[in-house]
From TrEMBL, chain A:
Biological processes annotated in GO: amino acid transport
Keywords: Amino-acid transport, Cell membrane, Membrane, Transmembrane, Transmembrane helix, Transport
Principal cellular location given in the protein's record: membrane
Organism: Nonomuraea wenchangensis
Name of the protein in its database record: Branched-chain amino acid transport system permease protein
Pfam families in alphabetical order: BPD_transp_2 (PF02653)
Molecular function terms, GO-annotated: transmembrane transporter activity
Cell location: Cell membrane
Family: Belongs to the binding-protein-dependent transport system permease family. LivHM subfamily.
GO cellular component: plasma membrane
From TrEMBL, chain B:
Descriptive protein name: Branched-chain amino acid transport system ATP-binding protein
Keyword field contains Transport: yes
Keywords of the record: Amino-acid transport, ATP-binding, Nucleotide-binding, Transport
Source taxonomy: Bacteria, Bacillati, Actinomycetota, Actinomycetes, Streptosporangiales
Gene Ontology molecular functions: ATP binding; ATP hydrolysis activity; branched-chain amino acid transmembrane transporter activity
Keyword check for Endoplasmic reticulum: no
Family from the record: Belongs to the ABC transporter superfamily.
CDD domains for the chain: ABC_TM1139_LivF_branched
GO BP terms in the entry: L-amino acid transport
Occurrences of domain ABC transporter (ranges): 4-233
Source domain of life: Bacteria
PANTHER family, A to Z: HIGH-AFFINITY BRANCHED-CHAIN AMINO ACID TRANSPORT ATP-BINDING PROTEIN LIVF (PTHR43820)
InterPro entries linked to this entry: AAA+_ATPase, ABC_transporter-like_ATP-bd, ABC_transporter-like_CS, BCAA_Transport_ATP-bd_LivF, P-loop_NTPase
Length: 288, 241
């Protein structure tokens, strides 16, 4: 039963990892940008929410509803102002820009909020739970997080397959120049992709912040989870990312069942195993 | 007013002067074939017209509007569509999704998904297939359908016959009259000269980036075309050196 409990908890955590990884996968898929500031953006969202809650006294859910669209706008602008210029200089340039952004964000956060470890207070909701079966207890927060992650991924999937703009995002990911030939303005398409990435990373960042503590240097250690979820699941497939997140979550959870010190190591080992034996990921997203 | 008017267009491909002072006019409802050997600058000319390569000098007007410096996606709205060399379908999209990308700009005109399916009836039952699974000829048809769905006034077709069996090429070219009848003007680039002479109202021959011969297929002798194509003998009739 203990083991079953570990699997359930890991599954729920995996949903959050998937939500967190989606933006990374999307930005790489559409623009070939490896966003090294991805983890830091999640932490920025956490601090922003912390400041908003502290400054305005608004309830946390209102702050989340405000922060996520704000990050979408921020994403669009970041792409148009900061990333677009470096795209033409090749993949190394974008890597350096996002690496620089990561360092800048960390230091700005350190300057404003100090190095103290914080957490977002989710109130009684964050700690309440219900009995699932026998000794398995499920927290409302992890469950809602998981369902929210699935809903967001499904929403993105519908956007990508059913709308003209979503189709153009996938088309640009396959062949940018030809997408231009049927009328796609790459800068706008890229802006939209980045907006979605920023919005999802903000939402994931806020969920992380309610679950566990964070400080200005947390970003890079979160980033590795996103990388692992994407690589385990297979690049370019949203459902692959969900599967990757779940595999990572369950592995970590089972690892901690053996020994709490094993938690992260177990995840890294599965990640390495996938890299070694199935580098295309569990669900290969593309037909190429 | 002519639909397309190119004046003294020069386009560089790297350091190479791929298109060198080319001028040409294209009337509405015409089919113009640009022929020439490998490396004559045909594809570069089309890419410049579609907005993928920036010209060094010269002007391009579409229906009187200067579009010399507009980016590719704006030219789609203006009414130019290019069927690129090598088809270039979106590999992770289905046949139907590939076609639908053409409707992104929502330009009004005669072409709808239904109409494209009527033009290429086999597509209907294969519309859910992945575009990468099609044969070369089928891919070429989808690439044409995709371009038509942007509802262009001017359809540019680059090397349609490349890598395809002659019978397939002929079958695809058989759809050209129907496309033109719908109100689309076509500029095709073709290495296969006999094919080009068969379908075009006028031909234009490029040699090393320059216009060396232009006229109606009926007015040109096989020898003239051959000389222009391979650059043999006297090429001064165009007024250039």
């Amino acid at each position: 039963m203990q083991w079953f409990n570990a699997v359930v908890q890991g599954l729920l955590l995996g949903g959050l990892y998937a939500l967190f990884a989606t933006g990374l996968s999307l930005m790489f898929g559409v623009m070939r940008i490896v966003n090294l500031a991805h983890g830091d953006l999640a932490v920025v969202a956490s601090f922003l929410a912390l400041a908003l809650v502290g400054g305005t006294g608004l309830p946390l859910w209102v702050v989340i509803v405000v922060t996520v669209p704000l990050f979408a706008v921020l994403g669009y602008l970041t792409q148009r102002v900061l990333l677009q210029g470096s795209l033409s200089s090749g993949p190394l340039a974008t890597l350096l820009v996002t690496f620089g952004l990561s360092i800048v964000l960390q230091n700005v956060l350190l300057e404003i909020f100090s190095a103290d470890t914080r957490t977002l207070d989710g109130g009684s909701f964050a700690t309440s739970s219900f009995q699932l079966a026998g000794s398995v207890t499920v927290g409302w927060l992890p469950l809602v997080t998981f369902l929210l992650a699935c809903a967001v991924l499904a929403g993105i999937q519908v956007f990508l397959t059913r709308t003209g703009l979503g189709r153009m995002l996938r088309a640009s990911s396959d062949d940018r120049e030809t997408a231009n030939l049927v009328g796609a303005d790459s800068r706008h398409v890229y802006g939209v992709a980045t907006a979605i990435a920023f919005a999802t990373v903000a939402l994931a960042g806020l969920m992380f912040a309610v679950r566990s503590s964070f400080d200005p240097a947390t970003g890079p250690s979160r980033l590795i989870f996103a990388f692992e979820a994407v690589v385990i699941g297979g690049l370019g497939s949203l459902w692959g990312t969900l599967l990757g997140g779940i595999v990572l979550g369950v592995t970590q959870s089972l690892g901690s069942q053996i020994d709490p010190a094993m938690t992260l190591l177990a995840g890294h080992l599965v990640f390495l195993a996938v890299l070694a034996f199935r580098p295309q990921g569990l669900l290969a997203g593309r037909t190429t | 007013m002519s639909l397309l008017s190119i004046r003294d267009l020069t386009v560089h491909h790297g350091l190479l002067r791929a298109v060198d002072g080319v001028s040409l006019e294209l009337e509405r409802g015409e089919v113009l074939a640009v022929i020439g050997a490998n490396g004559a600058g045909k594809s570069t000319l089309l890419r410049a017209l579609a907005g993928l390569n920036a010209p060094t000098s010269g002007t391009v007007h579409l229906a009187g509007r200067d579009i010399t410096r507009s980016p590719a996606h704006q030219r789609v709205s203006a009414g130019i569509a290019l069927v690129p060399e090598g088809r270039r379908l979106f590999r992770s999209l289905t046949v139907e999704e590939n076609l639908l990308t053409g409707t992104y700009r929502k330009r009004s005109g005669p072409w709808t998904l239904q109409r494209v399916y009527e033009l290429f009836p086999w597509m209907t039952e294969r519309r859910r297939q992945n575009a990468a699974q099609l044969s070369g000829g089928e891919q070429q048809a989808v690439a044409i359908g995709r371009a038509l769905l942007t509802n262009p006034d001017l359809l540019l077709v680059d090397e349609l016959s490349l890598g395809l069996a002659p019978v397939i090429v002929r079958r695809i070219y058989e759809t050209l009259p129907e496309i033109v009848a719908a109100g689309t003007t076509a500029l095709v680039v073709e290495q296969d000269v006999s094919q080009a002479l068969r379908v075009a109202d006028r031909v234009h021959c490029l040699l090393e980036g320059r216009s060396v011969l232009a006229g109606r297929p009926a007015d040109l002798t096989a020898e003239q075309v051959e000389h222009a194509y391979f650059g043999i003998g006297d090429l001064t009739q165009d007024g250039k050196d």
